Amino acid sequence: MVEVITGNERILRAYCLEVSGSCLPAEQVGGDFFEFIPCDARTMFAVIGDVMGKGFHAARLMETIRQMLRDCITNNPHPLEAVRLLNKVAGYELRKCGAFATLCLLCYDGITGRLTCVNAGHHPPLLLSDGKVKVARCRGVALGLLEDYLGSGVEEFFLAAGDAVVLYTDGLVEACGPGEQRYGLERLKKIVCLQNGANADRMKRNILSDLQAFTSGFPQKDDVTLAVMKVAGRAGEKSGD
Amino acid sequence: MKKVEIRVRQTEKMAILEVSGELDYSNVEQLQQEIQRRPEEVVEINLRELKFIDSSGAGMLLNQARHLYRQGRSLRIVCIPDHIREDLELIGFFRVLEILKADPDA
User: Fold this and answer.
1) Sign of dihedral through CA atoms B76, A101, A201, A27?
2) Would residue A209 count as lying in a domain?
3) Which residues on adjacent β-strands are paired with residue A28?
4) Which end of chain B has fewer CB atoms within 10 angstroms, the N or the C?
């Protein structure tokens, strides 16, 4: 397992968020990525994505898109505008290679608890609140497939202390187990539902353990990336650092 | 390399490519070359026996559809298993196909 936990804990504590994430490559390095990007004193972005293909080429494109996303957020911190702009600039790079990328961009306001979600062809996030799991409904066409981004727009949620958001790539729900069965969204929802009260890192580890139990002994086709963010309180209520 | 098999049938104006196995980055060129080799006005891709497709496979099909539409030809994708249809739906595959049909430069 290659575990990648990104984000400066000091900064994330300032937003009263716990975060944890991992990338588990299948056969060779792929184009999965996730990142937590602080924007200003109250706003933080979380992103998960998957660039088409495998190997050095996909990894290089993925790095280019990450950098472009940071630039787009700096240019316009509204998540829908950032994705529209990213589709313009990264779309050009992707189309040159005949590739595309899926991406889900979340913007969290640590003062109000508002979570804004924009989707470009990625599996929508799961939200865990009071032991109930909800699947976000935002949808959109993956980056690079069309000149102009096309999607259902922004979807908003208001998160309370204890609520958690689970981001994942297709490699998780499409992971193969006995009888060519897929791990699937329903099993993921069930295990997420059982995580009420666990911290972000424990949630991530429990989900990955369940995946491991399901896929044990079966070769996997795709990378698995999983990121969890959990609201610990309201920004400003705790001292940060 | 994953195993993909392509069986070709043809009528006067249409080539039918029946794809079985697993289509991914390691073998996607096989199907791409077969599509590019066809001179028929319509190329139909039958996915009834396909077990798995990754993003490289989906991307290649959209690129080939764009290419054929630009030539005034068309690519039809039929008999898509439910689990593959769901994966393709998520990335906006069918919306893109519709849009490309009307405007291949979209």
Assistant:
1) positive
2) yes
3) none
4) N
**To 10 degrees, what angle do helices A55-75 and A79-96 make?**
150
pLDDT of residue A26: 79
Domain B4-70+94-102: top CATH class: alpha beta
Cα(A48)–Cα(A168) distance, rounded to whole angstroms? 7
DSSP helix/strand/coil, A213: helix
Domain that holds residue A33: 9-231
Q: Which residue has the higher pLDDT, B96 or A237?
A: B96
Sheet arrangement for strand A164-168: A17-24, A224-231, A164-168, A126-129, A132-135
Chain B residues at the A interface, defined by Cβ less than 8 Å, are: 2, 22, 24-25, 51-52, 54-56, 58-60, 62-63, 83, 87, 90-92, 95-96, 99, 105-106
- Whether residue A31 is contained in a domain is answered as yes
Q: Which has the closest alpha carbon to B63: B35, B44, B39?
A: B35
* pLDDT number for residue A233: 80
Q: From chain A, pick out residues whose CB is under 8 angstroms from the CB of B51.
A: 180
- What was the pLDDT predicted at A1? 42
User: Among A100, A141, A221, whose Cβ lies nearest the Cβ of B54?
Assistant: A221
Residues from chain B that touch A170, judged by Cβ atoms under 8 A, are 55, 87, 90
* Residue A2 domain flag: no
Tokens found for residue A87: 């589709």
Tell me the mean pLDDT in the region A182-210: 96
A50 lies in some domain: yes
pLDDT at A103 over 60: yes
The two tokens of residue A158 are: 């208001």
Number of domains comprising chain A: 1
d(CA A157, CA A127) in angstroms, rounded, equals: 9
Report the C-alpha gap between A125 and A201 in whole angstroms.
Answer: 17
3-state SS, residue A32: strand
